[in-house]
User: Fold these one by one.
Assistant:
Number 1:
Amino acid sequence: MKKKITISIISIILIALLAFLISVECINNPNLYSEEYHIKKVTRLAEKKINTTLTSKTGFTVEPLYDNSEKLFGFVVNYEPYGYSIVALHNHFYFTKMLGASMYDEGAFSSLQRYKISNSQTSIVVNGVEWKVSSDKNLAEQYPNALWETDNEGNIITYEKESAYQVAGVMSERKYMLNTQKNNGSSDYIPAVKRGDKYLNLISMEEFEYKETFEPNEQAVMHISFYGFKLAGNY
């Protein structure tokens, strides 16, 4: 009788443990939820951020972003009167989920400066806007083939509070964030919209065909590091 009771207790513990392990995976796997569910969750997180941290903001919108397979990549959260966050869905490793990792990772990135890739020219004019090599040695070394968008005085334009989608005026279009792995193993991102069977790179404002691996400095990109939903982004 005592042996049966012991076996029953062990069985209950194992069933409870299995149920816990399954629930951890189900609760924290973004692939098990609809786009509408994710929008509601990100909306709540953005509301919490406004109430606790971004108290100068009066509102926001949550816009979906897609990858090259038309799957949900994440969201761009546009705060009012200005500022934005890039949020990525992330299916973390199981044990990371057990430690409380969120499905939503917010991107940390610098202010937007648009540029084109050119291996021969030092300056071009497109639609009345000059794109040229930077006089900053550090920037020129980091981006050896870059022609930067400049203003009427020849200074590189920096967009502090607007996303690439807002700057390009494509907020009404289906928006993409394309993950591009370089041959050196690192990954960057291209904010984009569709143009037929190609994409429009919203950093270079040039059309291109997507591929999973690019040569270094082949495409203009954003450098984004994603962390748990917290204080990141440009506000």
Number 2:
Amino acid sequence: MSPNRHALLRYALWLGVVNTARANRDYFGLPTTWVFHLALNSFTLFLPELYRGATKVWRLDARAQTQRACLSAAHGMLQDAVVNNPYYALYVTPVALAYMVSHPQFNIYKGDLARWRVAGFGLDALPHALTAFAFTNLAFDALHAFHKHTPSDAQWAALAARADEHAALVAGALLASASAFYESGEYAIHEEELRETHGDANKINLVWSAQDTLFDLMANALGWLGAIWLRRWRKRW
């Protein structure tokens, strides 16, 4: 897929996210959920453009040598893992799709579709697992790029090499942190929407429960394991 097609995919996904946000705003009338997801997806989908714009005003010349080396390594990491990465558009696709399937007309998180269960997992396990799979692969790319662009005489060179060597564990820790942040945010939004609707769960956009959170985390773990398996399979062949 050419870079132009990567960009077109991200732009098309953003339009889908905007349409879902509009539909949820009109249907539920609550800003908490759609504003959060629109902001999150806008950032991830336009991160290559945002970073290219930032680098136009970014200057390293006046930095101290150590700081300049660190910034240079970080810059190389973002260039390789985000701006020039042929897979970046695919990595952010599950996050966008995970929100788009909350559209009132085909919402998999509440209503009839949310009642479908296989071994306790609902349909929402698919976007969770795919998002975790993509997040882990992006972390692998970022860790490898940071290691590659770190000068051999840098103070953190050994740490960068060790992080790249044990990328599965580092990516797992990052995924766990991101999952904790996301689930905490969902809980806070859920509680706020219940307060806004005086406890009427039928009128809220985001439904949260401890059981769903447990299965979400299990789906995330499966996505992480899938990414590790794919990475090892690629190295073998």
Number 3:
Amino acid sequence: MDYIVLGLVVSFCFILIYTRAPLALLLTGCFRYNISTENEEQGNIRFSRNILCFFIMAVISFFIAFHSRLLSPLPVPLQGFSRPLVFGTVMGVFCIWFLFKVVIIRIIGWTIDAPGFMNFLGRTGQDFCILTGFVFIPFLVLLGSLNNLSGSAVLITAAVIAVAGYIIYALRCIRIFLAAGYSLFFWILYLCTLELVPLGVLIHYVAGI
């Protein structure tokens, strides 16, 4: 556990040093639509977005793997695994889910002849994932310093932040769909097929809820 925490801390320091400007732009874009559209024109932000997104997935994987109430008891495929191996497995599942979603979004964009629109939706989802993760990190550090990392408070905090972030993201998606000339029906269809259903299956399997 110690070397995983050390790795996350070192990664966080590198992020603050080398991706501080892109991070500020991405987080600001979550609250200002015009900045989010301007970010799409800056190719250098895309690499930083992927790095930040994978870092947040690592933080969430650490939280899931080492919280005493999550993955307890361990799912059958993970039984006999040490906590570091559970962390690696959860991280692997998140990476596969991330890559699968990227492929599906590109296929849909190609199918409806609107790759730019679908890619913008996908990158917007990444931005709000990054925002939610960075809001959660201070609470995770604070509760961890109080030796309350496995208590109910951190679970409630994580749930509140995740729900709030998802609501803001869903509202942003509405604006993107309307700006592109699509109806709310397609917005609901998008959320159900690529967001809510896969997310529910992932939570049910990984977190054991």
